[in-house]
Every structure is written in structure tokens, then in C-alpha cells.
């Protein structure tokens, strides 16, 4: 039995941005590794960052502060802020800085102004935001002044340097990002594997994976590479579609750290890169067998991409092998989108029985059919004239409050009438007139004509009258044929009444 499936204006200068950086702070704070937000990189402009104007229901106080920063020259910001009489908290400062990347000069002046209120007790996160804000606007001298002030206060963390890596790489200054990594220990931050991975991630994220690989050839003599390092590099090759380089990196990973069941992200990216390559499916299936023998496997991301590739190429055999492999992996379950892909594939390959079985088993694997699930299957069943199979699928779809599209309904009525199932034809027609207000003429006439042809003339007249009453055009040819049938049985008066309504409409 089936079960129910239910974010200004930019005005800044390097000198105005550095004013706050030279303040002496006397209070120590706890380390905070919170990373600042990373806005889009590249040439900075006010439109490149999240603005306070994009935040619905923003606190009025925060909105006013953001408006002042966005629309006031740097030299005037502190006086305008003083005139408001507003008091701020550490959290207020953080929120305002996050929304003021497009106005770095005024934002830094706000940071100094608010520091006076907070008695120089800015949160480490706010300091990281200032470093990130300056870096993303390519104000690197001011950025380093901020970092030096943070070092004096013992506030530097990996999050600070992750921001610097991202800013330099985004400005196409990879060498400076690498130099930053090389001097981290001079600032009291460990130059370890985690820091290395943060740098490599920033480089690969900007599509510069070749440079990341080149640096790793040197860095591996100083810092240990781990599974995450290779996973980051493999994701870079995946994003760049470089299967040859992915194979080289994978081989190096096997040589360095071997097979590891926990290294799912690396396997995910590697196989996803291969499957997108020309004729990559054979190679993928071979690697999957190899992984299975070693207790390793990719994640759902790979299987989703691979199944979509099977649909694109019509490769039913590979889809079955991938599906069976995925189902056997403990804790790995296909989602609704994946089910929809394979249902579509098997329908396309005329394996409607398997497509139906997949729909039925979805709920047992924690995936619930959506409108697309039913629509895909119904289209194939109707196309193949699978009358008995289409009926329960249609009923279940409607019961679960999904609306079959107009095309499906129209095709269904025709199929049912062609196969003598007037009950389902009428049921679908009633559903159509409840859910659609136009384009009903063709289907309505099909129903009336079909009823007449099987000598169910009274019902044909009933639905013809209902069409006229609803303003659905009844064709003159349909009316003429009804006249013939009614005249034969001596009920011409019914035709006269129908004609009168038809003319009136």
C-alpha cells in the first residue's frame, strides 16, 4: 500500500582608515576565533558588498548608524555620530561593521568613535571585521596597522589571518597571501596544518588551484599535509573541471596518507570531477569498486551529480549500479531530487515498473515525493497508456495536495476516454474545472464527444450543459453530433434547450 508523503557611498583614504589603528589599548580580551564575513572579492565598490539597505526590519538604531557611515565624509563622521547621542554595545558595533564594507574610511572612524564609548573594549570579532573590511577594500597598509594593534592586545587568531589570505588572493596577490602565512609565527599565531589549509582554501576558492599546488610542493617540507589539505585541493580541481590534475592529486594523497573512510569530501570531489569528464563514468565505477573493497565511499554530493549525468546521457545501466552502491552505504540516503532523477531516467527508458517502485519506496528512505515526482511518473504512464497504473498515482498526487499541470490532466482525460475508463476521465475533468479557469475547451469537448460515442448521451448532454454554464466553448461540431444522437432517441427537445443556452452564451 502507498503511504501519504506530506544587503552607500564610498569615501575613504588610507590615512583616515589608519587613524584608529594607532590607539593604545590597556585592556586585555579573550581570544575569539569568530571569522568575519567574506564579501565578494575583486575590485571593491559600494555595490560589491552587502548593504544595510538590503536587510529587512533592521533595528532603527543600527540603520541610522549605517546611514551615517554610508552618507557622511570620513572627516565628519565622528561629529555626526556624537550629535545623535546614541550609545552602542559590542554587538551593535559588529552588526554595523558587517553592513559598512562599502564605506571603509567612515566605518573605521565609527570603530574609533564607538571604542571611546566601550572604553577600548571592542570584541575580537569587531577587530577582525575591521581587518577584513580594510583588506577587502585593498587598503592593505591600514590592514596591517590594525593587525599590529591586535597583536599588542593579544587578539590575533587564525580567523584574522584567514581574512588576510582571502583579501590578498581576491586582489590577485597570491604571493602576498603566501608571505603572510610565512610570517604568522612572528605575530604569535601557529603556522600549522590548519593555517596552511586556510591559505590553500582561499587560493583554490578563487580558481587558482595551480598556484596552491605549486606552493604545497614547498610547504610540505615545513608543514604536514593532512586529508583536509588534499580535499581542498581536489575541490579546487573539481570547480575548475581539471580531471588530469585531480588524478595526480589523488595519487599523491594515496601515497601520503592512504585510504581513509573519514575522507569523504576528498572522494566526493575526486569522483565528481571524473564523472564530468569525457567518458568518465567507466573510470568512476572502477574507483567505486576499489573504494568499496577498502571501506571507503564518496558522499551524497557525488551520487547526485553522477545520477544527473546518467539522466543526461540516458545511461540506465550505470544509474542502477550507482543507485545500488549508494543504498548499501550505511547512513547515506537519496533525497527527493535524486529519486526524481532516476524516476525520470527509468521512465525515459520505458521501465515504468521500476519507476513506480521507486516512487513507492521513497518514504521508507526518508524522502517524500513532491509535485515533480508525481508529474514525471504520470507523464510517462500516460504516454505509455498505462491506464491502471496512472490512476492510483493521480489519486495519490491529488490526495497529497499537489496539482497536476494542465497538460497532464488533458492527456489523462483523453487516455481514459480512449480506453473506456469514463469514471477516471470524469474525475480528472472535474479536477480540471476546479483548478483551471482557461484552456478547457479542447478537453471538455473531448469528454462530451467520448461519452456520446459510447452511447452515454444523457451524461454527454449533462457535461455539455455544464460547459456552457461555465462559459467553456462547446464546439458547433460537438453540438451537431449531440443533435443526431438525441434525434435518434426522440429527445430533440433536449437539443433545442441546449442550443438555446449555447446561442445565449
Automatic annotation (TrEMBL):
Signal peptide: none annotated. Keywords: Repeat. Residues 1-13 have a biased composition (Basic and acidic residues). InterPro entries: PPR_rpt, TPR-like_helical_dom_sf. Pfam families: PPR (PF01535), PPR_2 (PF13041). Residues 1-45 are annotated as: Disordered. Gene3D superfamilies: Tetratricopeptide repeat domain. The keyword Repeat applies. PPR repeats lie at residues 123-157, 226-261, 263-298, 335-369, 370-404. Belongs to the PPR family. P subfamily. This is Pentatricopeptide repeat-containing protein. It comes from Rhododendron simsii.
Amino acid at each position: 500500500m502507498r503511504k501519504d508523503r506530506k544587503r552607500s557611498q564610498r569615501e575613504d583614504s588610507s590615512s583616515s582608515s589608519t587613524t584608529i589603528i594607532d590607539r593604545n589599548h590597556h585592556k586585555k580580551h579573550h581570544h575569539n576565533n569568530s571569522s568575519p564575513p567574506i564579501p565578494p572579492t575583486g575590485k571593491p565598490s559600494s555595490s560589491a558588498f552587502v548593504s544595510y539597505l538590503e536587510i529587512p526590519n533592521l533595528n532603527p538604531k543600527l540603520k541610522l548608524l549605517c546611514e551615517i557611515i554610508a552618507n557622511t565624509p570620513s572627516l565628519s563622521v565622528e561629529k555626526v555620530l556624537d550629535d545623535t547621542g546614541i550609545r552602542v554595545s559590542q554587538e551593535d558595533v559588529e552588526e554595523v561593521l558587517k553592513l559598512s564594507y562599502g564605506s571603509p574610511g567612515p566605518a573605521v572612524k565609527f570603530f574609533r568613535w564607538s571604542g571611546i564609548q566601550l572604553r577600548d573594549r571592542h570584541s575580537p570579532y569587531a577587530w577582525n571585521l575591521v581587518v577584513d573590511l580594510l583588506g577587502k577594500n585593498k587598503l592593505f597598509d591600514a590592514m596591517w596597522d590594525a593587525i599590529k594593534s591586535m597583536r599588542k592586545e593579544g587578539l590575533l587568531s587564525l580567523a584574522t589571518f584567514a581574512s588576510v589570505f582571502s583579501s590578498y588572493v581576491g586582489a590577485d596577490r597570491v604571493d602576498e597571501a603566501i608571505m603572510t602565512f610565512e610570517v604568522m609565527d612572528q605575530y604569535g599565531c601557529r603556522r600549522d596544518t590548519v593555517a596552511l589549509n586556510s591559505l590553500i582554501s582561499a587560493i583554490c576558492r578563487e580558481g587558482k588551484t595551480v598556484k596552491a599546488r605549486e606552493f604545497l610542493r614547498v610547504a610540505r617540507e615545513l608543514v604536514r599535509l593532512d586529508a583536509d589539505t588534499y580535499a581542498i585541493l581536489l575541490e579546487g580541481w573539481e570547480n575548475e573541471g581539471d580531471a588530469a590534475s585531480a588524478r595526480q592529486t589523488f595519487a599523491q594523497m594515496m601515497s601520503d596518507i592512504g585510504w581513509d573512510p573519514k575522507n569523504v569530501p576528498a572522494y566526493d570531489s575526486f569522483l565528481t570531477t571524473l564523472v564530468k569528464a569525457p567518458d568518465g563514468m567507466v573510470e568512476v565505477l572502477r574507483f567505486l569498486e576499489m573504494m568499496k573493497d577498502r571501506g571507503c565511499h564518496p558522499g551524497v554530493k557525488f551520487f547526485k551529480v553522477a545520477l544527473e549525468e546518467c539522466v543526461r546521457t540516458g545511461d540506465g545501466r550505470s544509474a542502477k549500479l550507482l543507485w545500488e552502491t549508494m543504498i548499501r552505504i550505511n547512513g547515506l540516503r537519496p533525497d527527493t531530487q535524486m529519486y526524481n532523477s532516476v524516476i525520470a531516467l527509468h521512465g525515459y527508458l520505458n521501465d515504468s515498473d521500476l519507476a513506480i517502485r521507486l516512487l513507492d519506496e521513497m518514504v521508507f528512505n526518508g524522502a517524500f515525493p513532491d509535485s515533480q515526482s508525481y508529474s514525471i511518473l504520470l507523464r510517462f504512464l500516460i504516454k505509455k497508456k498505462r491506464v491502471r497504473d496512472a490512476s492510483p498515482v493521480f489519486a495519490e498526487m491529488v490526495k497529497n495536495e499537489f496539482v497536476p499541470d494542465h497538460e497532464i490532466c488533458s492527456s489523462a482525460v483523453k487516455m481514459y476516454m480512449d480506453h473506456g475508463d469514463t469514471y477516471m476521465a470524469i474525475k480528472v475533468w472535474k479536477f480540471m474545472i476546479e483548478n483551471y479557469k482557461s484552456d478547457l475547451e479542447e478537453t471538455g469537448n473531448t469528454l462530451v464527444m467520448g461519452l456520446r460515442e459510447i452511447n452515454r448521451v444523457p451524461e454527454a448532454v449533462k457535461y455539455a450543459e455544464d460547459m456552457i454554464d461555465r462559459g467553456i466553448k462547446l464546439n458547433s461540431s460537438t453540438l451537431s453530433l449531440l443533435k443526431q444522437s438525441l434525434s435518434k432517441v426522440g429527445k430533440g427537445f433536449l437539443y433545442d434547450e441546449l442550443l438555446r443556452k449555447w446561442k445565449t452564451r
